[in-house]
Specification:
The protein is mostly helical and about 300 residues long. It has 10 helices and no strands. The relative contact order is 0.16.
Length: about 300
């Protein structure tokens, strides 16, 4: 009887997750249909739904990619240091500190970014606009407040750092001991052992952790809404100017309270696009993490 009850409850929990996910998808699709079929003149800004969603989607992907490019190398370095270089007592404490970053509310990161981090990046942005303006990413003019796409991406990088670091640390610690000991016995240095035995084993786990962090960055709302100074409908690769595209989540948070009618449907349609992208990213990450089981000693 106990086995049957446990099996039934576990099966019910699994089915419930699928039902909730299907319900969310159904709601988003049903509420997006009016915006998808409406005339462009009736939508916000008098633009088609594609023209409305595309700048938001571009800003979402740009901020998330910046965060991923910055956070992944740092997270991997932190994971390797904690696992193979730091003394045991230091490694334990440092691991707790890194994991605590995941418990900080996103609004705290937003206040930190707008009040402390962004103003201190202004001199860097001025220097980039003066000496590296030939690069399209830093063409300027530099923002006087520091509330730029690059700032938002760096704040997101700090937020996703503990996710990538925790998964990488777990994978690196499970590298086959025989492989590590064999490399050291053959005269390899600690870095050579990591390069030949640990990194090949943990590659899929690092990629999976990076994709999970990317999923978090794609859906972040309050931190981006507070830090980023947006210009509606803009698509720009300039990372240091005051003219920045918004993200889908931040745009919904800022505009939903004052919207009505088709404007609400347009916001939900943008949420549907974010739902599809986030689901695809997390599905891809899960498939990569599962492939790690194929690598064993």
């Amino acid at each position: 009887m106990g086995d049957r009850l446990f099996s039934g409850s576990a099966t019910g929990a699994g089915i419930l997750i699928l039902v909730v996910l299907a319900g969310v998808a159904t709601f988003l699709v049903a509420q997006s249909v009016p915006a998808l079929t409406a005339d462009a003149a009736d939508l916000p800004g008098g633009k088609s739904i594609v023209a409305y969603v595309w700048p938001l989607l571009f800003g979402t992907l740009l901020a998330a990619i910046i965060a991923l490019l910055v956070a992944t190398p740092l997270a991997v370095g932190i994971a390797l240091f904690i696992t193979y270089y730091a003394p045991r007592r230091l490694a334990q404490g440092l691991g707790y500190v890194v994991d605590l970053l995941a418990a900080i509310p996103s609004i705290v990161f937003g206040f930190w970014g707008i009040s402390w981090f962004a103003p201190r990046l202004v001199p860097l942005y001025d220097w980039l606009a003066e000496h590296a303006s030939w690069i399209p990413l830093f063409s300027g003019p530099a923002s006087p407040t520091g509330r730029t796409m690059l700032t938002a991406g760096l704040v997101l990088a700090v937020m996703i750092l503990p996710i990538i670091s925790a998964i990488s640390r777990e994978v690196f610690s499970q590298a086959p001991a025989l492989h590590r000991e064999a490399a050291l016995a053959l005269g390899a240095t600690r870095w050579e052992m990591i390069r030949m035995a640990v990194l090949p084993y943990g590659r899929s786990g690092v990629i999976g952790g990076a994709m999970l962090g990317l999923g978090r960055a794609l859906g972040e709302t309050l931190a981006v809404a507070i830090v980023l100074s947006v210009s509606p409908g803009v698509v720009s690769f300039n990372l240091i100017s005051s003219t920045n595209p918004s993200t889908i989540a931040a745009n919904i948070a800022l505009n939903f309270p004052d919207s009505s009618g088709l404007a609400v449907n347009a916001l939900i349609a943008s949420g549907l696009a974010l739902f599809v992208i986030t689901f695809a990213v997390n599905f891809f990450a899960r498939s990569i993490v599962n492939r790690r089981a194929e690598f064993s000693e």
